[in-house]
Amino acid sequence: MEPTTLVVNCGSSSLKLALFDRKDQKLATVLVERLNTPHAVARIQGLETQITIPAEGGYEAALQAVLAALKEEGLMTSDPTAVGHRVVHGGETFREAVLVDDDVLESIQACSGLAPLHNPVNLAGIEAMRKLYPTVPQIAVFDTAFHQTLPPRAYRYALPDHYYRQWAVRRYGFHGTSHYYMTREAARRLDRTPATTSLISAHLGNGCSITAIRDGNSVDTSMGLTPLEGLVMGTRSGDVDPGLFDYLSTKGITANQLSKVLNQESGLLGLSGQTNDMRTLCDLADHGHEPSRLAVDVFCFRLAKYIGAMMASLSQLDALVFTGGIGENSSRIRQQTCSHLGLLGFDLDAELNHAHGGFSDGIISNPDSRFPVIVIPTNEELVIANEATRLAGSPMARDGAQ
Predict the structure, then answer these.
(1) Which helix (H) or strand (E) holds 213?
(2) Angle between helices 102-110 and 119-132 (to 10 degrees)
(3) How many CB atoms lie within 10 A of CB 228?
(4) Quick one: how many helices (H) and strands (E) in the chain?
(5) Does 3 or 156 have the greater pLDDT score?
(6) Which of 114, 172, 207, 376 has a Cα at 20 to 30 A from 358?
(7) Which residues are annotated as a binding site?
(8) pLDDT in tens, 214-233
(9) Is 121 helix (H, G, I), strand (E, B) or coil?
(10) Which residues does UniProt mark as catalytic (predicted)?
């Protein structure tokens, strides 16, 4: 049978699977929504089939139902030869993808305090797949791993030293698989090697982050200890004055309440009072809805400020790259952001920008722009699949480690 690699991405109420062959071709994508509720449903991309997901049984029951449907549809003709798992937080323990064993599981659990909404559900997916496929190598790929090359001046907070030494309070960064992919794909399009490529990579979706990449390595990034720091996002505030906590405590707002507000009720949603969907916001703004216009303006201005800040970590810049759902698809956001950067020499070609970089190199800037600007669709699942395939072929995996 054709060797395949399965990619598993577990969220708190969702589950996404992707199946790849060894030629990097995606064979199937499955999305499970409203997991652990009576309304849980799964769909295989491109098919009308709806998969019934048990309301109980958690990730293991959901995975069993999805895998059975893939086999019934003829999309998965044998057990996978490797399973790659997205894990959000690896702390300082994991600098790269690893083959999962009991020690790795304990270390991922130890990082759960840094990502309480993410790591526990990532672990649940790994444990479920180990039960379903006890002899198949399971590989953990960490969002934070790519950023382990950050220098101390970029990852340390100006806090008492023991906060870092005792409690690992530092900046970690996220979206690492996306920024890693941007490095390799941009280098290919620019006819360079990753080790000689320096970029500013803007991953813009419901979650947003920006990374300075110098000679193929992450040297600064906008997200910090958690995925809350940095840019304005769909429902996350990004940077706020830390004094906000003290001030709002005098108004009766508790730390838990404020944490929920900053993570789930802020960002584009909070500013607009309407939605966190950028397409809808742009449409509302065009029809005179002032809060939506403000949300778009704040998003673009904050992004432009961070682009300028990232240049402090670079000695050269080969390209500014836009990716993610917003970065890839919104010509308006790209144009409005770059309009704040004229002093730095970024100059977009209106036609190319409108076409979303509709050419093989994805370049949307004018030839006389000081720096190229590129649109590149991200492919985090492919990165995870490639890492899983690589590690599944290691001697440790062949000797039976799980």
Answers:
(1) strand 208-214
(2) 160
(3) 19
(4) 16, 13
(5) 156
(6) 207
(7) 9, 16, 86, 203-207, 277-279, 325-329, 380
(8) 999 999 999 999 999 999 99
(9) helix
(10) 143
